[in-house]
Design brief:
Elements (H helix, E strand, L loop, with lengths): L24 E9 L3 E8 L8 E8 L5 H8 L1
Antiparallel strand pairs: 1-2, 2-3
Pfam families: PK_Tyr_Ser-Thr
Organism: Galemys pyrenaicus
Protein name: Receptor tyrosine-protein kinase erbB-4
């Protein structure tokens, strides 16, 4: 089950979060970049399904350290 986006400042229900496989994601074009990495417009095709779901894909910079990774996930 996929949960809709939550309003800013509201923590997502982690019981409903789904870990996606990299092979299920396709990057379409760059939307922008910032301190943590680059954001792409993408498509998610869940394994075993034919539905194509538009998503934003954020790729962290290789130089991003552990502290920044924690900040990103919060």
């Amino acid at each position: 089950m996929v949960e809709p986006l939550t309003p800013s400042g509201t923590a997502p229900n982690q019981a409903q979060l789904r870990i996606l496989k990299e092979t299920e994601l396709k990057r379409v074009k760059v939307l922008g970049s910032g301190a943590f990495g680059t954001v792409y417009k993408g498509i998610w095709v869940p394994e075993g399904e034919t539905v194509k779901i538009p998503v934003a894909i954020k790729i962290l910079n290789e130089t991003t350290g552990p502290k920044a990774n924690v900040e990103f996930m919060d």
